[in-house]
Amino acid sequence: MRHPIAKAVSICAFLLVALRIQSGAALASPFLHPRRHTLVGELVRTDIKAKNLVIRTAEGAEHVVAYTGRTVVHGVGRSADAGYLAGREGSQIVVHYTQRGATTTADEVDVFGHAGLKEVDGTLVGVGKDGRHVVIRTKDGAEQTYDLGQDAAIDTKDGTIDAGDLAAKKGDHVVIYHAQEGGRKVIHAFDDLGRKIY
Questions:
Q1: Which residue, of 61, 75, 99, 114, has the greatest Cβ tally within 10 A?
Q2: Do residues 114 and 137 lie in contact, with contact meaning Cβ atoms separated by under 8 Å?
């Protein structure tokens, strides 16, 4: 027969371990740690009553993204709320959003008009020492330098990363979306798709 104090210590130890495991699972929950991502496409519809946007990507998939009173819109002449997107259907946009479980909510929306963004598919071959310039090699072997815009979101499968983390991504297959601004090619969205394919 076990001593009552030893039994109580065993039960307490078991409960402590169970509590740590449970709190660790809670910390890993997507509801407590939302992931930030970007979505690039054409604005198909703005539903003011439902407070959501419908965006069609280049692949033809349509995504519904909710917006709130805190969603900020850039590129409409001044910073505005998402309600200003009504009537701008057909515009190319970059949506910076947060994913919490099954809910996708826009934090910021950048509007580029009907032909403002160009897509480039290639390999990241260089990152400037300042971390604000990148070199992309396309399938035909051509290399081009691009500036990272102030609002550039660098998206990976695990969420967005800082520009300072790009050097570790050299050789990765990337898709960038850029616009001509003052004679420069400025990146507004950067998707890191993983390891090099060509």
A1: 75
A2: no
